[in-house]
Amino acid sequence: MIYEGKQKIWSDYQKEIPDDHYFYVRSCIRQSFFPASEATFLDITRNKLGKDIFETEHHTTCGGIAYHSDTIPQETVMTIIARQFALMAKNGYENYVCSCITSFGLYCETMETWREYPELEAKIRENLWKSCKLEFAKPKFLIHASDLIYKYRNQIAAQAVRKLVNVHTGEPLKVVEHIGCHYSKMFPSKGVGGAEYPYVLVGMVEAWGGEIVDYPERRHCCGFGFRQYFIKGNRGYSLSNTHKKFESMEPFKPDLIITNCPGCPYFLDRWQYVIAESTGKTYGQDGHGIPALTYEEVAGLVMGYDPWDLGLQTHQVGVEPLLDKMGVPYDPSKKYLGKNGKDIGEPLPCACLK
Amino acid sequence: MKNNILIIGGGPAGLEASAQLQRMGYNVILIEKSPKLGGHLAKWDRLFPDSVQAEEVLGRLLKGAEGVKCFTDTDVRAINRLDKSYNVRLTNGITVLSDAVLVASGFDLFDAVKKEEYGYGIYDQVMTNADLEAYFKSGSDRRIEKPGKIGFAHCVGSRDEKSGCRSCSKVCCATAVKQAIEMKQAFPDAEVFCFYMDLRLFGRHYEDIYLKAQKEYGVRFIRGRVAEVSENYDGTLLVKAEDTVAGKPLKVTLDLLVLMAGMRPSASGKAIGDLLEMSVEEDGYFAVRSGIAAGQRSPIPGIFLAGAATGPKTLPETLADARAAAMEVDRYLTEIFPDAKNYKQLVRERW
Amino acid sequence: MKDYRLKEGLNACINCGTCTAICPAAEFYRYDPRRIVDIVQSKDDEEIEKLLKSDTIWYCGECMSCVTRCPRKNAAGLIIMSLRNLSIELGYFIESEKGRQQYLLTKDLCSNVLDYGYCVYPRRFDYAGHPEAGRVWEWEEKHLDDLFERLGGNLDGKGTGAMRRIPQEDLDQLKAIFDITGATARMENVRKAGEKKAAEWGLTEEEFIAKIYTDSDPKHLNH
After folding, report:
1. Which of A84, B202, B310, C125 has the fewest Cβ atoms within 10 angstroms?
2. SS3 B156
3. Does A321 touch chain B (CB under 8 A)?
């Protein structure tokens, strides 16, 4: 592997990311499964870095998952998106940051399609007026929330209390990055670093002291596949694709997987559980799995957030070996407690996965 | 009076045209931007289809051009059209008054780094056709140490709109077959794969080397373009393609992958074209005066074109093109150029 | 077929196979996106109709990995999406096992959007239907309110925050968008086709859903 070769490509794909003043929209999957990640994103950007990140209660799903499950027409999803843009304009913003990768891809696709076919944009404008009596303005800058954390990576490093380093050996942690397919595969120039060697997560890991490991199936999809996961009869598709990735990364012995798509950390986490429980195979050390974290969770760990505040207890793969390596202090007895120490029980143990 | 003719580019086309025009009695000035004459040919080891040494061919071309005034490390700084001739200022400080100019600026090899998914310059065991020729010449390359499995990826930067090149580079299929055979000769135990979309082996004896590659050397031809390359833990390469004949995705682990980088219009040729405001076609190569019937005349009177400056060509095609250009120059200088009074009218009628 | 995705997605295909080579579906299912593009560009109506009634067009996961690689700037994934669209419009989807799944997908996802304003809603994501969600979700499912409170969320709450209750006026606007842009009509279409099929098989809706949720003929698979 020739590192300089990648640097050359990274320098070819730089995108402009404004420093401040964003209209923020949430992700259906991230808020369902990783609510603490969105809370951490807002806490870091607003409170630790003093940025203006505005959220309105009136924004909704972009409809992306319904669209990519082929349940709603393209015009529908575009009109919902136009409505989100209208809310942005109404609140006086022109920079748009979204938490979801499916959304990000769809926003890019929508804007590009409108650029190519202005008559379609006009139609959507008409749709939005007819249905909601709203008018929209297109964002000046459209970015994904991981782009913003990438932008602030060095400021975060400056405030960090620890690094992505094994405190026992002094060695950098070996980190595998997984980029959501819709981040830049459709429009390489819209992603930091392009489609083949995206830099958005690599940049964070490098800034925070970790070491990125590349592996053959790095670019492969996690296997969500929308309808391929939602329908039980199709789920083998999803499992087999995650399985392929883990078999491919196994020899590299990664300590951690960092992701920027909301769905991927769920699939990379849960399918490890299914593989372990059904075949006995685990990919971490001594019967453990490899933690698959969101970039907000990783940022939170280096900045000294309590792991249980970050929601790491909601991963099926135990994160304790990672916390031990990083020297993160944690209280095992508090892992599964509710707010103010409320006892809400705990998950049943797994048969195989530690 | 001996007319001055400036030839830009000291590759096979420029050398062959120089030789021919000199024989016709013209005063030829040949310039070459690099320190050495011979162009890509000087970097190649053997040539398809009969594996003749490139050095031998180049030797013959150089011998033919003996006596030609030749400036290496020299480019064009400025070029001005006078009434009939061209006043050309060279980067070596010399100014040439030339009655005809032949642009033989050739091609650049596609920069394989731009085909990002193939990992050239990133994954250690990926090399180009040119790298492999350099290895054949020098006998050493850090990437080659008894490779067990070798792949050749056809159409790298050719027939690829994402790489900005729709057209076929014409020579890569035959080069891949040639290099596949040569690797089998060097490493008889190696398994060799060629990943192709269409095998464009149109020339005389080309089909013979294809047959030889299959029958004598057991080279495996897989009809599917390489889609992605990555690096395994042990440093070998994982190559993905579809075997489109079987309709199945295919993954092959290789010790070495050779990218058949295609032809792109040369950057230095483009700079000369800009100075002359000479038009190029959509593919970036220079446009010729009137299609296939006048393949060596540019749209500008007195400016001629030869070789890969007007699109990918094999070596024999380039040499034939250079000879044809010499004929065209001669015709221009004898039929149109001398008549000062009617020059403009003649150009209108006959250029 | 007036579909912007087809316009954008289909230039002449060169049959090189780069799409199939890296397709997550092609390794798992008996599926070859290159062939689909080839059939569409053949404009052979009979073949296309067969395709629209087949399982084949439902194998894609819409990851769009094919888009990055095509040397002719085609987008097999977008072509698939427009074929699926057409299959639903013409009612052909109900003829194949994989196509039929649209009945359930449409019902679930559209009601999530219209009822809550989200595509995914945790109270509708049940461990019983999703055992792969793990022991941890089995536990979370029982304590969603406590967990969202613990993790800085706002499940069904007022104002902003993760999984907040989206105001009714906004849900009304989503419904109006659905009505105007053809989503409501499509839902109706899919519902009717499903009901007809269920009646044909003599199944109640519940039985029909259970069947399409779990049916999986081994013939789909590559291995």
Report:
1. B202
2. strand
3. no
In Å, how far is C45's CA from the nearest CA of chain A? Answer: 22
Indicate if C103 and C185 belong to the same structural domain: yes
Do the Cβ atoms of B159 and C14 come within 8 Å? yes
A277 to chain B, minimum CA–CA distance in Å? 27
Entry pTM: 0.95
Give the distance from residue B111's alpha carbon to the nearest chain A alpha carbon, in angstroms.
Answer: 13
ipTM of the complex: 0.97
Residue of C nearest to B223 (CA): C16
- Cβ <8 Å between A236 and C216: yes
**Start-to-end C-alpha separation, chain C:** 35
CA dihedral B304, B309, B312, B316 (to 10 degrees): 50
Gap from A250 CA to chain B (nearest CA, Å): 9
Q: 10 Å Cβ neighbour count for A71? A: 29
Averaged pLDDT for residues A129-138: 98
> Are C191 and C98 found together in one domain?
yes
Distance to chain B for A216, nearest Cα, Å: 5
Is C109 in the same domain as C203?
A: yes
Could you give the domains of chain B?
4-106+266-350 (3.50.50.60), 112-262 (3.50.50.60)
The residue of chain B with its CA nearest to that of C68 is B162
- Mapping DSSP to helix (H, G, I), strand (E, B) and coil, where does residue B233 land? coil
**A93 neighbors A21 (Cβ within 8 angstroms):** yes
Inside any domain, residue C122 = no
List pLDDT tens digits, range A154-213.
Answer: 999 999 999 999 999 999 999 999 999 999 999 999 999 999 999 999 999 999 999 999
The set of long-range contacts for A327-336, using a CB threshold of 8 Å and a minimum separation of 24, is: A327/A162, A327/A167, A328/A162, A328/A301, A330/A306, A334/A308, A335/A308, A336/C139
Using CB atoms, pick whichever of C14, C22, C35 lies closest to residue B227: C22
| C189 falls within a domain | yes
- Both C15 and C82 in one domain: the answer is yes
Do residues C86 and C111 share a domain? Answer: no
Q: For residue range C8-52, what is the model confidence (pLDDT) as tens digits?
A: 778 889 999 999 999 999 999 999 999 999 999 988 899 999 999
Q: What does the DSSP 8-state code read for residue A259?
A: E
Q: What count of CB pairs under 8 Å joins A to C?
A: 272
Could B249 and C73 be called an inter-chain contact, meaning their C-beta atoms sit closer than 8 Å? no
| Interface membership of A7 toward B (CB under 8 Å) | no
Residue type, B310: T
A196 to chain B, any CB pair closer than 8 A? The answer is yes
* Domain tally, chain C: 3
Q: Are strands B149-156 and B191-196 parallel, antiparallel or unpaired?
A: parallel
Given a cut of 80, is residue A110 above it in pLDDT? Answer: yes
Q: Do residues C42 and C145 share a domain?
A: no
User: What is the identity of the amino acid at A171?
Assistant: E
For A70-104, the pLDDT digits (tens) are 999 999 999 999 999 999 999 999 999 999 999 99
* Residue C143 and residue C53 share a domain: no
- Based on the domain organization, do C155 and C178 belong to the same domain? no
In a domain, C42, yes or no: yes
Judge whether C223 lies within some domain.
Answer: no
Chain A contact set for C135 (CB, 8 A)? 273, 316, 347-350
Show the domain range for C202.
Answer: 93-117+168-216
Residues of B in contact with C26 (CB under 8 A): 242, 248-249
